[in-house]
Amino acid sequence: MIATAAAPATPDDPAPGAAEAQVDDARDRVALTPIVITGATQIELQGELERALVQGLRRAGFAVVTLDASFADCSPGAPECLARVREAHGATHLLTTRVESRERDYSVTLELVATAPARRESISQSDECSLCGLEEVRTMLIVQGPQLRSQLDVTRKQARLEQERQRRLDEQRDALARQPVLVVRSEPAGALVTVDGERVGFTPLERKSTAGSHLVTIELEGYAPEERTVTLERGVEQLLELTLTSGRLPPTAFSRQLLISGSVSLSLGVAALGVMGSGLSLGVAAEREGERLVAEGLAAGNTGIGLTDALADTRRRGAQANTMAIAGGVVAGVLLTTGATLIGLSTTNRIRRITDTVRFAAGPSGARGVSVSLSGRF
Questions:
Q1: Please, is 321 exposed, middle or buried when counting C-beta atoms within 10 Å of its C-beta (0-12, 13-18, 19+)?
Q2: What is the pLDDT of residues 146-165, one digit of tens each?
Q3: Which residue did the predictor score with more confidence, 299 or 156?
Q4: Domain spanning 181-243: which superfamily?
Q5: Does 25 have pLDDT greater than 60?
Q6: Max CA-CA distance within the chain?
Q7: Gyration radius of the chain over CA positions
Q8: Is 311 exposed, middle or buried (CB count within 10 Å of its CB: 0-12, 13-18, 19+)?
Q9: Collapsed DSSP state (helix, strand, coil) of residue 217
Q10: Where along the chain do its domains lie?
Q11: Contacts of 278 (CB under 8 A, 6+ apart)
């Protein structure tokens, strides 16, 4: 293995002042360690290959600092070496090059590492040339510079994309962490929670919401509803804790209408029961009258058609009485059931929350009918 110091100046190298200006203006400043060549028999091959490598790096936009022999053992994996190169030459990257020669077959391996640990840029690449002359080997080294630049650009693009992705994830996490939280508790639990008119669940409730003012309503059957306005702020958990008051809402116009209609229906149902009772009484009277006529007819020897004619009027009155009793019973059942239901509904909080104009009416219709009507907006 042969390791030599920096190559002498050649026409390809700029003048000292120009070189310094080029280094100062470049974005990437590469510190080049002496090329390590194995298997080479020509000592002059070292300088030729190093000049070719420098030429290719400068064509690719790199500023090149050629390190002296004191950095010959500098390894890209040694942080202290990278720090020394960065402090001594202001280099952003360290480039090590190894060339292996086997007769006329050559292989080259390069490793480019950022001197600043935060940059995390590390690129390795290799190339081969079979049955090559010196000029072909020089060309192979010249093209390493553009290839390193291409890989470095790809690496940086990927790093920028990863940074952007991470930035967006951090913003999303921050937004979620800063989103206000509404916590609602009630005694007793199980009450329906409505936020700005939208049902969101039952207590106890914990829910993320938007910042700003919100109208929260808590409802539970048998308890007076509670309504609160809360203001939510980013990153703050807002607790709303209420003890519900047992009791019924005050009557409304609609609930009073139901109560009156139910009372009327009950009264009509009672009257219908009276009709049913009258029908039953008339039926019993007609039955007894029939029994009396049959007994008198048999005693007088009146049988057959004569007895049947005597009972015709009694049977007619009995049939009418039965119809009256059945109709009265059916109507009474409907009216009493409807009345009891309406009176019961009129006392519930659910009905008393209806504030729009609603009208309910129940009553007789015609000679034998009953009408029920409900009109209004809900």
A1: buried
A2: 999 999 999 999 989 999 99
A3: 156
A4: Carboxypeptidase-like, regulatory domain (2.60.40.1120)
A5: no
A6: 165
A7: 53
A8: middle
A9: strand
A10: 2-171, 181-243, 253-376
A11: 324, 325, 328
Give the integer Cα–Cα distance in Å for 262 and 346: 9
Convert the pLDDT of each residue in 234-257 to its tens digit.
888 889 999 988 766 677 887 788
CATH tag for 2-171 (out of 3.30.200.20, 3.40.50.10070, 1.10.760.10, 3.10.20.30): 3.40.50.10070
Kindly state the tokens that stand for 49: 């290959």
Cα distance between residue 36 and residue 100, in whole Å: 8
The dihedral of CA 265, 267, 273, 278: what is its sign? negative
The helix/strand/coil state of 353 is: coil
Measured in residues, the chain has a length of 378
Number of C-beta neighbours around residue 124 at 10 A? 12
Name the average pLDDT for the chain.
80
Chain centroid to CA 22: 55
Better-scored residue on pLDDT, 37 or 348: 37
Nearest partner of 84 among 68, 61, 63, judged by Cα? 68
Structure tokens at 181: 């939280």
Name the pTM for this structure: 0.44
Query: Which DSSP letter does residue 70 get?
Result: G
* Cα 300 to chain centroid, rounded: 99
Local confidence band at 14 (pLDDT 50, 70, 90 cut-offs): very low
Residue 257 identity: Q
Mean pLDDT of 356-375: 55
pLDDT attached to residue 320: 85
CA 41 to chain centre: 70
179: amino acid identity, one letter: Q
Helices (H), the chain: 16-25, 45-59, 79-89, 134-142, 144-178, 253-299, 305-346, 349-352
- The one-letter amino acid code at 308 reads T
